[in-house]
Amino acid sequence: MIMDESRLASLEGKIDKILNRMEVVARLEERQISTANLIERNKNRLDVHEERITDLETDTRGMQTSASIMERGYWIIFSAIVGFIMYFGKGK
Fold it and tell me: How many Cα atoms are found within 13 Å in the side-chain-facing hemisphere of 60?
């Protein structure tokens, strides 16, 4: 009987250890799920930022083209004005 009680106590101790470890595993699983959700959320946010950056790059290219055309126009007008001034300045 004493032998049975000590074996029973030993089994209870082992079962308690197993239960404690199962609790730890459950907590680790919760952390893993939480981390996976966080990673997924960050991926989604990164995708949104990537789209916005692409849109900004496209808009910027369009603005650079129009700015380049406007700059050329200003230089043409400036050159014409300088040419007229030089032309009429020589005649006097």
Answer: 6
Tokens linked to 63: 């603005």
**pTM (predicted TM-score):** 0.55
Which has more pLDDT, 46 or 7? 46
Q: How many CB atoms lie within 10 A of CB 16?
A: 10
Rg of the chain on CA atoms, in Å: 39
Over residues 43-68, the mean pLDDT reads 92
Q: 14: part of which helix (H) or strand (E)?
A: helix 2-91
pLDDT (mean) for 49-65: 91
Q: CB within 8 A of 84, min separation 6: which ones? A: none
pLDDT for position 2: 66
